[in-house]
Amino acid sequence: MTLKMEIKEVSKIFGPHPKKTLRLVKEGKSKEEILKKTGHTVGVERVSLDIQEGEMFVIMGLSGSGKSTLIRCLNLLNRPTSGSILVDGEDITTYDRHKLKKYRQKKIAMVFQHFGLFDHRTIIENVSYGLEVRKVPLKKRMEIAQSSLETVGLKGWEDKYPNELSGGMQQRVGLARALANDPDILLMDEPFSALDPLIRREMQLELIDLQNKLQKTVIFITHDVNEAFKIGDRVAVMKDGKVEQVGTPEAILENPANDYIEAFVKDIDRSKIIQAEGVMIKPNALVRLKDGLNVAIKEMKSNGLSSVYVVDKEMRLKGLVTIDDALEAKTAGRSLESIMTDNFEIAAPDDYMQDLIDKAIQTKYPIAIVREEKLVGLVPRAIVLSSLASQ
Amino acid sequence: MFDFPTGLTFHVGNYVSDLVDWLTVHWKTFFDGISNGLLWVFSHFNDFLIWMPWWFFVLVIFLLACQFKSVSSGILFAIFLILIGIFGYWDEMMYTLCLVISSVVISLIIGIPLGIFMAYSKRFEMIAKPILDGMQTMPTFVYLIPALFFFGLGLIPGVLSTIIYALPPVMRLTNLAIRGVPEEVVEASLSFGSSRWQLLTKVQIPQAMPTIMAGINQTTMMALAMVVVASMVGVKGLGLEVLTALGQIDVAKGFEAGISIVFLAIIIDRITLAISNTFQKK
């Protein structure tokens, strides 16, 4: 992975004398103190982040946490008061007007919370706006805009006006407009929070799909923890203009850096974040196919189990044996193979807990986690069902 | 005790008067230049309007109304115009129309760019706002007096005072309209690397257009409202007819000239409003 964007010690202060106020920030004065004393608002305070190429990087925070201010620093809609932002090794904060224009035209595009569409233009004219600004010839830009509209599934809506479309469709136009410029970096400022929940979920999934195809570097802002953890490869949590923690969703869930984040992730719907891999246990008892009935009974007895999985010597899952069947077979003199059942549930390691819930309800036995036919672990029903209860 | 102390009287009026005298003497060529330029444009435009066959003009108004409003209002406006002709005020109406149109065009040429500048500069807005208030609330007769000194009796002071009176609405509304373009839309335009000029011409002005059109409509109505006042400095047209009727206490003439102004006002207002509405629909 290569480093795409390096945000170094970026601060943004609003007010008539931001540079002077910066000193107070460096002295460690709090936001409230500074506001009271000087009337300046500290939007972002010395934030440093590294963003990798092709990564879906989510910045999460409540309103007033500075996340929107920060994302606007990345295309210089806000000029940072101090600090530097390196994109492909070049510091964009030193750009003059001309270079900045080129940077915005070629490298970076933005999707807005309330779509930011031009309602005097048709959909296709909206989508081709970035190309028009770059003076791409009409025919060419219509072609690109057309294919961009098709990417987001809005074929046939070219000549409508934005207010003839639903919210979800309008945001697709916003996305198509950003994609038409073929930027390396896509900034998304709470793109789905103005949409109703059903549409939001649909758009999240589509964005993940699209990202798998296009492999852009996406910087995504949200105030919704579930959204952040669902779509983010890595998540940065912001509070009062500062970044509190950066990490993968699972790492943050496992080890919240402080009480604030812990409180934040408490309401999270874990079943949508945690994968089977994260909770599965190594089976403490297993029976090989060649071991036979007696070993199976012994294994269950010594481990206090009522059932055990049977594997071959390559760890391929063959079946399940219960203690009742085993004891009965023993007196009847039957073999291990004859009493194996496939009356159990299997799942993949990257399945979400959410998908395991139904399986846990249907079966009496632990869920077998199988990767390429091999048994890699078990998820006891208790774990799945208790995760449901803790919500 | 309760009366305002007489010792405190002090007149600024004299100084204003002196300034006007000084300007009249020393800036004569400047004012003459404006005067001659305006007069040239105006008289040619007026000649054209008068030269136009009456039925052609009625037809143009009818078609405009049909296009932007409805056939029934087209018919109504045509009847209005013919009525004005029947009253014997056709040429006067054309003269008034010419005054209104040229004042409005000049107001727009000055007002829209200044309004845009106002939207961009907080400081200019701060200075311009009270001046605009003054232009609108100062009794119009007051600035007719210096206008008389600079340009003499006749059309030019009439046009100028009409412009002063009609300029504020379009300037104010242009300012408001540009400022009213949603922040995110401006950001969206900038985020794609638009230049200032592209932002203005491709996004801000088109987005502001419905409000600017409302400003143009208001400006036109203000210009029309000045018609009678302007006639006091010798501008011809419908206003002068009203004024003469007033002098002669001629109710009949007053009514005919007055109702002609109302007809003209209705036609201009409805058509400009209808045109501005077409911008709103999108």
TrEMBL record, chain A:
Residues 22-265 form the ABC transporter domain. Gene3D superfamilies: CBS-domain, P-loop containing nucleotide triphosphate hydrolases. The keyword Kinase does not apply. Keywords: Amino-acid transport, ATP-binding, CBS domain, Cell inner membrane, Cell membrane, Membrane, Nucleotide-binding, Transport. It is found in: Cell inner membrane. Its main location: membrane. Its EC number is 7.6.2.9. The keyword Membrane applies. Residues 280-336 form the CBS domain. It holds the Pfam family CBS. GO terms for biological process: amino acid transport; glycine betaine transport; response to osmotic stress. It catalyses: a quaternary ammonium(out) + ATP + H2O = a quaternary ammonium(in) + ADP + phosphate + H(+). It is an enzyme of class 7 (translocase). It comes from the Bacteria. One of its GO terms (molecular function) is ATP binding. The complex is probably composed of two ATP-binding proteins, two transmembrane proteins and a solute-binding protein. Belongs to the ABC transporter superfamily. This is Quaternary amine transport ATP-binding protein. It comes from Pullulanibacillus pueri.
UniProtKB/TrEMBL annotation, chain B:
Residues 93-272 form the ABC transmembrane type-1 domain. The keyword Transmembrane applies. Its main location: membrane. InterPro entries: MetI-like, MetI-like_sf. Keywords: Cell membrane, Membrane, Transmembrane, Transmembrane helix, Transport. SUPFAM superfamilies: MetI-like. GO terms for biological process: choline transport; glycine betaine transport. It is a multi-pass membrane protein. It comes from the Bacteria. The keyword Iron does not apply. Belongs to the binding-protein-dependent transport system permease family. This is Glycine/betaine ABC transporter permease. It comes from Pullulanibacillus pueri.
